[in-house]
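RECORD TYPE: protein structure
NAME: Phosphatidate cytidylyltransferase
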Amino acid sequence: MVAALVAHGGAHVAAILFYGSNLRSGDVEGVLDFYVLVDSLTGWRGSRPLALATRLLPPSVEYWEIPWQGHTLRAKVAVMGIDQFANATRFDCIDTTIWARFTQPVMLAHARDGTARQTVRDAVAQAVTTAARWAAILGPAEGMARDYWEALFKATYSAELRVEKASRGISIVDHAADRYAALLPPAWASASVAFEEIGDGRLRPLLSPARRARGDRAWRWRGRFGKGLNIARLVKAAFTFTGGVDYLLWKLHRHSGVRLDLTPWQRRHPILCAPYILWKLKRMGAIR
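PREDICTED:
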């Protein structure tokens, strides 16, 4: 899949990151998750309007399918500029999506050269220190390392307008509990967050009440902005999600067993055809 992505983007592809549940499990079933970081959005998309949409509201998402060893590999591919990625991991970035996602385990699956490799590694490290700073603000006055990560992920999932279960933050930490426990102290040190170890693995960030209050206010603003940003991305995706129809048809077949074949015209105009498609799916028993 990485080779196919590089072949598509050529020299414009600076780096490719692989992350998500398939990285944790090693499974190739389901949908693989990739971020493609490019120097030229126009060079990747082949369209100035689509490139502009990605520049204004990154990332843009594509669905890919390729044959592999008698199977079909499926991937959800997010595309954005490598400069956008680096900026999105900063602590002052109002969008929480990128730094929260790449605090979690991630593989650098492709780097064009040493410069691109270092840029991405620095950005991922910056994502971790950003997350650690927010974890100190949003977490308890004292606690175990996992308490801070769980509080952080609960807050970021809420800010992103996602439909995950309330226990999602716990399950993320459970997948790599030792990693997160080892990561927090050096991340706080890198982020200039003073803290003390108070025994039995418990930590206490040394934040003044004023600093914590400022942080709480800043987070509330990010929470309000994040929900609106996710809605805007959903609207954009309705017009720019390359391969989105195939992705939805695959999801439909996987969860309901119903296989729906669309005409070429219906594939080109899925929004116009939505009422008819929904009616047909209802008749086929895919939806109730």
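COMMENT: The two ends are 36 Å apart (CA to CA).
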